Amino acid sequence: MLILSGILVSEAHAYIDPGSGSVLLQLILGGAAGVGVVVKLYWERVKTTCQSLFGRAGKTDPNG
User: Fold this and answer.
1) Cα–Cα distance for residue pair 15/8, rounded to 1 Å
2) pLDDT for 4-60, tens place per residue?
3) Quick one: pLDDT band at residue 3, thresholds 50, 70, 90?
4) Alpha-carbon span 46 to 37, nearest angstrom
5) 38: closest CA among 49, 28, 30?
6) Cα–Cα distance for residue pair 32/39, rounded to 1 Å
7) 46 and 39 in contact (C-beta within 8 Å)?
8) pLDDT for residue 62 is more than 80
9) DSSP state, 62?
10) In the chain, what is the straight-line distance between the N-terminal and C-terminal CA atoms, in Å?
């Protein structure tokens, strides 16, 4: 019922204050920093998995 009443509201007298923009910016920057840390921590594992799936593109074997 609560979700349905939130969807069916036709008019809302609301605004977004300036503080909401900074909170949204902090959320985006914090998420990007978190993704960066996870990628840094697991980069070798991701790299070896991709190399095993797609082969070592660009490297040729000198012996044939």
Assistant:
1) 19
2) 776 776 776 777 787 888 899 999 999 999 999 998 999 999 889 889 998 875 555
3) confident
4) 14
5) 30
6) 11
7) yes
8) no
9) T
10) 69
CB proximity list for 39: less than 8 A, separation 6 or greater = 46
Task: Take residue 61 and report the two structure tokens written for it.
Answer: 């074997």
- In terms of Cα–Cα distance, which of 47, 22, 20, 41 is closest to 33? 41
As given in the structure block, the two tokens for residue 23 are: 């909170």
What 3-state class would DSSP assign to 5? helix
pLDDT at 8: 75
Element spanning 33, H or E: helix 18-54
Q: Position 10: which residue type?
A: S
Alpha-carbon distances of 48 from 19, 30, 35, rounded to whole Å: 43, 27, 19
